[in-house]
Structures are given as structure tokens and as C-alpha cells.
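In the previous lecture we treated proteins in isolation. Real proteins rarely work alone, and many bind small molecules. This record shows how such a complex is specified: first the sequence, then the SMILES for zinc ion.
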Amino acid sequence: MLARCLAVVFACLLSVVVQAAEVVGVRIWDSPDSTRVVLDLTGPVNYKAFALNGGPLNRIVVDLERSSMTMAPEDIANQDTRVTRIRSGRREADGLRVVFETQQPMAVKSFQLLPEKTPYHRIVLDLMLQESEQQAIPVRSAQESARPSSQPRDIIIAIDAGHGGEDPGAIGPNRLMEKHAVLAIAKELERLVRQEPGFTPFMIRTGDYYISLRDRTRKATEAKADFLISIHADAFKHPSARGGSVFVLSERGASSESAKFLADRENESDIMGGVLASRENYLVQTLMDMQMTHYRKESRMLGADVLGRMGQVARLHKSEVEEAGFMVLRTPSMPAILVETGFISNPEEARKLATERYQKNMARSLFEGIRNYFQAHPTEGSLLASLKQQSLSQQTHIIRRGDNLSTIAQRYGVSVGQIKQANNLTSDRLHVGQELKIPQS
Ligand SMILES: [Zn+2]
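The predicted 3D structure, ligand included, written as C-alpha cells:
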């Protein structure tokens, strides 16, 4: 009997030991309007998170039941953030309190995630700036540069650097992370677009932080973008796979096995970032897909222009635009493409992707593809559209034997004076082969 009791007590003790969790990692990322803190734990815990603002300190407090933390503050990754100090202390009944001191008052939302692609359970804390503290978000700058509707506006290019924050994307043999390589290419593309008259860039991710796939498309829509380009450099099953490729959203199924593989991998980004899919989302998505077919043709044409340019600076994985169910391409109000700028799993391409030279060449090829497309197919109401209209409406006439100013004027329904003025002519003399601008009557 005693032995049995002892066994029960021992079992209880054991279960306590098994259930106790240890905080083994703390990682922090700032985004323009929030800060994400992730606690890595060896098991699931009951916890409470709350803000203690006011007074001399602004704090976010997390109380965890039956937990411990032995890591030193200097082990905490990404320290240069809005979190200025981290403290931890024991609480009654094996509890643990972790306090995050922040630069300014912040609110907190939190959730817990099961191990998913990492060995640890995670508590995710999203610390949000109070409204008055929020920086002007870049959306506004894109809207400002879109002038009043009567004036021709810029074409807005939404540039999405894939992954970010706790989602590193693929990792190359040289430890290069996809999220860093694609942000470098995105920033170079932003610079080129900004320099080009008639275009305005809009960066969806500006630093090393996570954004859900849905929020990426939402940001592009809010910025009233005319086009979304999502930039990646993924890993593939075989390290020998290499070359760039361009994808558009497919209506049904993927155009190849590799396209499906890559889309599945990309869509896992939200699992890393802790976004949970719901059936409701699925239904909304289906409705959106129907709207999106409208932009399929444009997306494909844009993709082909970009792919053509990419082929001049890089080897191509597939010479045609491919299709697959990439979540980030579900943009109901604009055409969208996803580019794989190379396979980070290929040692040679990983080396290239890490160089500024390759990043710049790649960005330039993306830019030229986009620019060529919009010069040929400018969006209605844009500066590019009005420039194209002007050049089309300006007729020219090449002088042939027997032509004189009054016969030409008669033919085009304008006056001799108008022709002379448009061409700065001081006399009526013409010569064969001379090119005359014909003003609009
Ligand atoms: Zn990716």
C-alpha cells in the first residue's frame, strides 16, 4: 500500500516536472507600428500578458505558471528595439514573471503556438504603439504622391520582400537567409522605381519583421497600388535546382510539380508567423479568387516582361511564366507576380545572392520589366497614359515631291500658320524627306 502511494506521489512529481516549461529563447523584432516578442518554451504553459503603463516606466508583463528562465539578458536576440530592458523573477508556486520595459507606452496582444517547424512552443506577444505614437505609415506617402484625380497620377508599384522577422525564409549553405537577400533586392528596386518619372514605389516590408500574407496584400490594396511584386529566393528539394522564375496565381492547380512545391513552402510563412487559417477565411478567399481572374491576363503579361529581362542577367529555371496557388498573390484589385530570384539552396546561387552586384543586377532587371510593361500598357489616368496619348496624337508628315504648305495644311485640316509655328519655320520653303510636326486642329 505504502509502495503504491509512493508510486502515485512520484508519478505526480514527475508530471509536474514534465509540465514545467523553461524559457529558452527570447527574440524581438520592430516593425513600423508594432514590436513582436517571441518566447521559445520547452512545453506549453498557462500564462497571462498585460501592459503596465504610466508612471516612470512602461512595461509589458508576462506571468507564466510553473516555468523558469535561466538565460542571460545578453543571450536575447535582436536587442536594438523598442524594448529597452528585460527582467525576470520568480513568483509563488513555481511561477515566472518576465517584464519588458518599452520606450513608449504600448498595448499587448498575445497567443501561444505549438511547435511548428521549430522544436519549441512559442508565446507570441504583439506590442502595439498607441495611436498618437505611431509613425506616419508609408501608405500615406504613396497616396500623397497619387495626385488629385483630375491630374495624371503616378503608377504605384507595391514591392514585397518575402518573409521577415521570425520567418527567415529559406537558408542557404552559406547561412544566407532568404529574408535578408530579398530585402536587399527590394530596396534596390524601390530606389530605381523612385527615380523613374511617372512611378512611385511602396515598400510592404521595410525591415526585419514579420507580416502575414494577408496583411501584405491588404497593405498593397490600401496603398492603391497598380501592381504587386513579391520577391523571393527559395530553397528546393535538390540543391542542383537553379535559376530564376516568375509565378502568377493559378485558378486551379499548379503548372508544374516545382511550382506547387514552392507555393506550399511560401504559404507556410504564416505558420511560422502564427497566423491560423479559418474556414471563414477560406470562403472569403474563394470569392476574392473570382474577382482576381480579371487581373490574370495582366499578371501573365507583366510576368512575361519581367521574366524576359531576368533572363538577361540570370539563368532561368523555367522560360515561361508559371502558375500556382500563392496566397500573397490573392490581390483582388491589381495584377500581381511572385519572382524567385534564384535558389538559395544552390551553393553557387546562394553565393551570388549574397553579393551586391547580383542583387543590383536582379533589381534592375525586375525594374526594366515592370517599366516596359507599364510604358506599353499604362494605367488609365496615369501620367504615363497621358504621355502615351500625347505621342500618339502628334502626327508627322514627311515631305514628298510636289508637297507644299497649303496642300499639307488642307489635308490635315489645319492652317499654314499653325504648321509653321509648330515647326518653327521662318519661310515656306520645304525639302523632300523633311519631317513636319502636324499640330492638332
Ligand atoms: Zn520565399
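Summary for your notes: The longest strand covers residues 21-30. The chain has three domains: 19-133, 138-384, 394-438.
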